[in-house]
Specification:
Pfam families: CotH (PF08757). Keywords: Signal. Helix 11 packs across helix 13 and helix 14 packs antiparallel against helix 15. The termini are far apart. The protein has 463 residues and is α+β, with helices and mostly antiparallel strands. Strand 1 and strand 2 form a beta hairpin. The longest helix has 25 residues. It has a 7-stranded mixed barrel, surrounded by 4 helices. It has a 4-stranded antiparallel beta sheet with strand order 11-10-12-13, sandwiched between helices. Strands 1-2 form a two-stranded antiparallel sheet. It has 15 helices and 13 strands. The chain has 2 domains: 186 residues, no CATH class; 165 residues, no CATH class. The protein is 39% helix and 17% strand.
Length: 463
């Protein structure tokens, strides 16, 4: 009998230690949908703080302003080959010659990758190419420094135990290649200036990336890490992040009369509901005959659906920094978010790498905006109104007096120059837009001159 009790006791002790061993190799992630058990023997770097959906957004780590982050991306050679075939099929053969673009309106394929940061791995992370001209022009010129988008749970259906994987709380992030920007700073500085002026805008920081596609790790150069608008910007910079978010692209993005097309008002949230009532109302109101027959009613209706003040604030800042590759010249590079706290569509800028220069094609807009036609009614119709025009002018002055201050910008440019210089100098032919180290140096000096020139230009315009 005594031996029987001893046997049972030993069995219970064994079960207890076995349970403890199981706990040592499993980590539980609580989600709103279900409990996810992550096998930390298979995924040893997984922790709740770094990989789980339950983790707090760690802006201090992900958007560290004092360091250049390093990301290492490893892609299976077959998956890499599929990515290249996808580019070739949609953009034409990589001729290594500029100006051979066929089309850039396509959705690049996702493939899984191993993503490493600070000696920690994230598993089966989705990665794809991204961009319009920044993708097609770079690719067609034979430059391998292309932009990427990351989605940390893109392949969760294939790997259910990694469901809702995050990168310090972030689901998606963008690695922008700083196309057509020899200073490598415009994307970051533009986004920061908008946000400092009180506008919703993505957080950014500098990073370098290394890609191993089966042939060893290759340095791809200096990138700008950009926060995804539909992932965290609307959640952290608005009271309620559950409203409709649109990324217009195409003729409908102009809001010109006769242009509305739901298919060009890409929904980034609430897609299944397919409700475009709010953005259709903005189109209807901006083009309403009330504008010429009853201006007070037109303005009241417009202000009930659209954050007019925020748009004029953006327009002023955008005009000062000469960000020409957006509304007013191009039918893309902005978001509209229906802020449920105000029930108004709010403008969110996007893609600033072409800012801080006179511009291409028609060039950057003048301060007067007199050249803007009814093809861009959100600008031309608002600026035609004396009250709105005065608000815009006031924001021009406020922006250069409080945010776009040449001496402070010069210090910022110098700080960033010192931060990224060694990484810029290390960029390699075929993976860089820099022709030489001096081209980087000169571009930074040009930014410093640009700041004072624009401040002087605003002062002259407002006299």
């Amino acid at each position: 009998m005594k031996s029987k009790y001893l046997y049972l006791l030993a069995l219970l002790i064994g079960i207890t230690f076995a349970c403890r061993d199981d706990e040592a190799i499993e980590e539980t992630t609580e989600t709103s949908e279900e409990e996810v058990i992550v096998d930390t023997e298979t995924y040893p770097d997984w922790t709740d703080a770094t990989h789980s959906k339950s983790a707090e957004l760690d802006y201090a780590t992900v958007f560290n302003q004092n360091e250049v982050l390093r990301f290492d991306i490893k892609i299976d050679s077959d998956d890499w080959s599929d990515m290249q075939s996808d580019l070739s099929s949609n953009l034409g053969g990589n001729s290594g010659r500029p100006g051979q673009v066929t089309t850039s309106d396509f959705d690049p394929i996702w493939v899984p990758c191993s993503f490493n940061f600070n000696d920690t791995e994230w598993y089966h992370v989705g990665v794809r190419y991204k961009g319009n001209s920044s993708l097609s022009s770079a690719y067609q010129s034979g430059n391998k420094k292309l932009s990427f988008k990351l989605d940390f749970d893109e392949f969760e259906d294939d790997y259910p135990s990694l469901k809702n994987q995050r990168f310090y709380g972030f689901k998606q992030l963008n690695l922008n290649n700083n196309f057509d920007d020899l200073s490598l700073m415009r994307e970051k500085v533009g986004a920061d200036l908008f946000r400092e002026f009180g506008l919703a805008s993505s957080q950014t920081t500098f990073c370098v990336i290394y890609v191993d596609n089966g042939s060893g790790s290759q340095y791809y150069g200096v990138y700008t890490l950009v926060e995804e608008v539909d992932d965290t910007v609307i959640d952290t910079q608005f009271t309620d992040g559950s409203g409709n978010l649109y990324k217009p692209d195409g003729d409908a993005a102009s809001f010109a009369s006769g242009s509305f097309d739901e298919s060009e008002m890409e929904k980034k949230t609430n897609e299944d509901e397919a409700d475009y009532t709010d953005v259709k109302s903005l189109y209807t109101i901006i083009n309403s005959s009330d504008r010429t027959s009853d201006i007070a009613q037109w303005k009241s209706n417009l202000e009930n659906i659209f954050n007019v003040d925020g748009f004029l604030k953006w327009l002023a800042a955008n005009t000062v920094i000469q960000n020409w590759d957006t509304y007013g010249n191009m039918t893309h590079n902005y978001y509209l978010y229906n802020d449920l706290n105000t029930n108004k569509l709010t403008w969110i800028p996007w893609d600033n790498n072409e800012a801080f220069q006179a511009g291409k094609l028609q060039g950057a807009l003048s301060f007067s905006l007199n050249e803007v036609s009814s093809s861009w009614p959100l600008i031309s119709y608002l600026i035609d109104d004396e009250e709105y025009k005065q608000i815009y002018d006031d924001y021009l002055l406020q922006f250069v007096n409080e945010v776009f201050i040449p001496s402070e910008l010069s210090d910022t440019y110098t700080t960033y120059y010192n931060l990224i210089k060694d990484y810029a100098y290390a960029e390699e032919s075929g993976y860089s837009f820099l022709g030489s180290n001096s081209s980087f140096d000169s571009a930074v000096e040009t930014l410093k001159s640009h700041a004072q020139e624009r401040k002087d230009a605003v002062t002259s315009y407002l006299k």
